[in-house]
Design brief:
Number of helices: 16
CATH superfamily of the largest domain: HUPs
Number of domains: 3
Number of strands: 15
Bound molecules: zinc ion
Strand order of the largest sheet: 4-3-9-10
Oligomer: single chain
Radius of gyration: 27 Å
CATH topology of the largest domain: Rossmann fold
Largest sheet: 4 strands, parallel
Distance between the termini: 42 Å
Helix content: 40-55%
């Protein structure tokens, strides 16, 4: 039985869907003004695995994740570069698709863009005005937070405390200092749309309220995002949607934790932030994914380049192991033992049912791997094949170890080589020279070749079939 932690109730709860067998899930996506960094990767991978696990558990899932393509950051960056905001956001949407591919994330069922939903946002703001929850002020429209008694329920704060606890800028356009913008009058040079309040553009929060209910109805099952979005973004989404419709917005609120670099918070201003692209160049996207899955999604994630490298080594060894198993099982074909498959997949389910605990999921993956090695050593092919099948199923949900081991290892070899600056032909030539040297009993030269290659990250292995090589 699946249990999920709900931010609204603050408790671990039994997961019950609104419609039998179906899940509607909305996750706040990226603002497309720059490349995705590790903080994004964490959220993307966390909800990708949640999506896959729900499907694996038999649910029919509709996963919606928006693209915020109108925002101050986009406008500022586009102005800096002297290009239209639309050109910048489209460029980054393409880059985002590439980052998703690198991370091994499935595409959501729907990826709506904010700018395609201006009419829905205007309609929602009008509904709020009719209910006296919004008011116009000098071409802007604000949500009146003190008209909604439940305001603050997600972040568990009271309006009085919010005002007292934060430095609130005095703004005479607002009636209450915590009122937030639903619509902003346009300034010269900004993208703008016609509206009942004059030309302008939407505030940030309104886009998610408009898009989630359009595609999933209201209420829907899961609303997710990073825990930095609890306040104000998700609090404001609840205020807008529940205020307008008089109905609950989402049944469960799931929030992922942030990324730490040592004890520091990662941020662009501190300059200690890495993009998905940079991580992938360093150690491959799957190693980053593996690192993310090592921690429960709700907790903090400690990131360092060293940790990323360590995870890559673990992953490389895992693929080497899978490669050996596939070879052995190809020579000794056997039907997978179903009890063995169920045992290991059952361990995996037990861990994942505990609020999508991926570190327990990874433990089940490695449990199946070590059992497989034992069966291979004992030539128990049917049980070994059962473990291999369990690894395939678990790996498909986690997005780990799903590549053909030979393809993965070959790609790693190539990547390692470009770093060490030595080509495959060069290595083969040196292996031939070393063999010749040994024949001539010139062991000093043979050892020198081996040590030289090792220094460049290439390890030679002498076996019955001759000398093979791999990268470290
Ligand atoms: Zn959102």
């Amino acid at each position: 039985m699946l249990k999920v932690h709900d931010t609204l109730s603050g408790k671990l709860e039994e997961f019950k869907t609104i419609k039998a067998g179906k899940v509607g899930m909305y996750v706040c996506g990226v603002t497309v003004y720059d490349r995705s960094h590790i903080g994004h990767a964490r959220a993307l991978v966390a909800f990708d695995v949640i999506y896959r696990y729900l499907k694996f558990s038999g649910y029919e899932v509709t996963f919606v994740r928006n693209l915020t393509d109108v925002d101050d950051k986009i406008i500022n960056r586009a102005n800096e570069r002297g290009i239209p905001a639309k050109e910048l956001s489209e460029e980054n949407i393409v880059a985002f698709g590439e980052d998703m591919r690198v991370l091994g994330c499935e595409r959501p069922d729907l990826e709506p863009k904010a700018t395609d939903h201006i009419a829905e946002m205007i309609e929602l703001i009008r509904e709020l005005e009719e209910k006296d929850l919004a008011y116009e002020s000098a071409g802007d429209v604000y949500f009146a937070v003190d008209k909604l008694p439940a305001y603050g329920k997600l972040s568990h704060r009271r309006l009085e405390d919010m005002v007292a606890g934060s430095r609130v800028d005095v703004d005479d356009r607002k009636r209450h200092p915590m009122d937030f913008a639903l619509w902003k009058a346009s300034k010269p040079g900004e993208p703008s749309w016609e509206s009942p309040w004059g030309d302008g553009r939407p505030g940030w929060h309104i886009e998610c309220s408009a898009m989630c209910s359009k595609y999933l109805g209201q209420p829907f099952d899961i609303h997710g995002g990073g825990n930095d979005l609890v306040f104000p973004h998700h609090e404001n989404e609840i205020a807008q949607s529940e205020g307008a419709k008089g109905e609950m917005l989402a049944r469960y609120w799931l929030h992922n934790g942030m990324v730490n670099l040592g004890t520091e918070k990662m941020s662009k201003s501190l300059g200690n932030f890495m993009t998905v692209q940079e991580c992938a160049a360093e150690s491959g996207g799957e190693a980053l994914r593996y690192l993310v899955l090592g921690s429960h999604y709700r907790g903090p994630l400690d990131f360092s380049k060293e940790r990323l490298q360590e995870q890559k080594k673990v992953l490389d060894r895992f693929y080497e192991n899978l490669g050996r198993a596939d070879e052995a099982l190809a020579s000794n074909p056997a039907e997978p033992d179903t009890a063995v498959v169920e045992e290991h997949v059952g361990n995996f389910r037990e861990g994942m049912d505990d609020d999508f605990n991926t570190s327990r999921g990874l433990a089940a993956l490695h449990g199946a791997r070590s059992a497989m090695n034992g069966y291979l050593d004992a030539s128990d092919w049917s049980k070994a094949a059962g473990c291999r099948e369990a690894l395939r199923q678990i790996g498909t949900v986690l997005g780990i170890g799903v590549e053909n081991p030979a393809t993965y290892l070959e790609a790693q070899k190539q990547q390692g080589l470009s770093a060490g600056g030595v080509s495959a032909e060069e290595i083969e030539a040196l292996i031939a020279e070393r063999l010749e040297a040994r024949k001539n009993k010139n062991f000093a030269r043979a050892d020198e070749i081996r040590d030289d290659l090792k220094a460049r990250g290439v390890v030679l292995e002498d076996g019955a079939g001759g000398t093979t090589w791999k990268t470290e």
